[in-house]
Design goal:
Order of helices and strands: HHHHEHEEHEHEHEHEHEHEHHEHEHHEEE
Number of helices: 16
Distance between the termini: 51 Å
Helix content: 25-40%
């Protein structure tokens, strides 16, 4: 759990961080000033008389003398005992360095997954929940290409653009971070449960909200400052002038982060946001993933490794629906790697029944759409999409143009002769 294996000093700092967070009159910026001046939450709560040195009125420390903050902090403390995840304090060396420098950096974060992703070259990909099909496709291409180069894609696990970005990035080298607008143990939206679980295993889930916190409209603008704060830059795919994506872009500009935007039609309502950013000179126009990667390749030479298909112009060709560059001459071609063989005779638990049925159908029929697989297997659409997502995360199935192909070969030889 989040509190297990934490020593006495760490627990004291946890409790002090909750004391500051639950004290009335102390906002994120005041707490950050106290942390910066005194070096830790524990030191801050034991030096109230010196708070003015941090630019925080000493009078605000009076809340620490009451029991009100304890009544609110105790449930959060108890809930963290049962939370599957980690606590990241502002003083923790694992706390993301780009976020720590912000004037309103949270004193405490809850995390589940691969914390090493916080040290990567991170780029946020954001857009509308009610996105257009074209931009959903562009998002998938951009996020996959970014992650293939080693960029960690950050987004908010919302419907639409966020979801597409996480799904495309997760199986690749850079993978993905999802910043939640609810508690770490709350799945929202509920239809993203399988993606939420996959990101928690192979990527990283992150939240500043206490365990059990339900999503509310006011949480998401607060959440968005973390999405941009973790990132070197924010890529806006689409959104209106008042959308959450534009709120994230404004946070990025305030934080000194880069902003990138995908241009759209002048009569498309959801292109008003990115088009406006470009028109005002607040965002760099991008046409492919390389336009973003080239901004940071020299800063992260050991982490960003552009693959051959991402040479300038190649990703742009795919985004525009044109053919990829011609293949290499025959003498330069490499042999295709052998397919992974999944032997269900030896390891019957390697796949769920739904996953095995889908792989059998893909192996027998070749490339199929999700609807084709529903018809071929008789499995409900919701379960088909869930199983396909997890198979993509394992890199056992590939998707292109909303059609799926298997990357493995099923072997199901009997280990014992049939009875009778």
């Amino acid at each position: 759990s989040a509190l297990s294996n934490r020593g006495e000093t760490a627990r004291a700092e946890d409790w002090a961080a909750l004391a500051l967070r639950r004290s009335k009159g102390l906002g994120a910026r005041s707490i950050r000033r106290l942390l910066g001046r005194f070096g830790s939450a524990f030191a801050a709560v034991h030096n109230v008389a010196r708070w003015s040195e941090a630019g925080v009125p000493v009078s605000k420390g009076a809340a620490l003398e009451s029991d009100a903050w304890r009544r609110e902090a105790r449930p959060e403390w108890e809930d963290s005992r049962d939370l599957d995840g980690s606590i990241l304090l502002w003083t923790d060396p694992r706390y993301p360095s780009r976020l720590r420098e912000l004037p309103d950096a949270p004193a405490l974060l809850y995390a589940r997954g691969d914390l090493s992703l916080l040290d990567n070259a991170c780029v946020a990909v954001v857009g509308s929940r009610a996105c257009s099909p074209d931009n959903l496709r562009r998002t998938h291409t951009l996020a996959r290409e970014l992650s293939a180069c080693g960029v960690t894609v950050v987004s908010g696990l919302a419907r639409g653009i966020d979801c597409a970005a996480h799904k495309a990035a997760l199986p690749e080298q850079g993978r993905t971070i999802a910043v939640l607008g609810a508690g770490l143990d709350v799945v929202y939206p509920p239809e993203n449960r399988d993606l939420y679980q996959a990101v928690g295993v192979k990527g990283l889930l992150l939240s500043e909200f206490p365990p059990g916190t339900r999503p509310e409209g006011s949480h998401f603008p607060i959440r968005n400052r973390i999405i941009s704060g973790l990132s070197l830059g924010v890529l806006v795919v689409e959104g209106s002038q008042t959308s959450g994506a534009l709120i994230t872009a404004r946070w990025a500009l305030e934080q000194g982060r880069d902003v990138f935007a995908v241009p759209g039609g002048i009569d498309a309502p959801l292109s008003q946001g990115p088009n406006g950013l470009i028109r005002r000179g607040e965002a760099k126009l991008i046409q492919d993933a390389w336009d973003v990667v080239e901004e940071y390749a020299a800063l992260y030479p050991d982490k960003l490794h552009p693959k051959t298909p991402l040479a300038p112009g190649a990703a742009r060709a795919r985004l525009e629906g044109r053919e990829s560059p011609p293949p290499a001459p025959p003498q330069q071609k490499e042999l295709a790697p052998a397919r992974l063989v999944v032997d269900l005779g030896k390891d019957p638990e390697a796949l769920t029944d739904d996953q095995a049925a889908l792989l059998r159908a893909l192996q027998a029929r070749g490339e199929q759409s999700a609807d084709d697989l529903v018809e071929a297997t008789g499995i409900p659409a919701r379960r088909v999409l869930s199983a396909l997502t997890l198979l993509q995360v394992r890199q056992w199935v590939a998707e292109a143009g909303r059609r799926f192909t298997t990357l493995v070969e099923l072997k199901e030889e009997r280990t014992h002769p049939p009875r009778g």
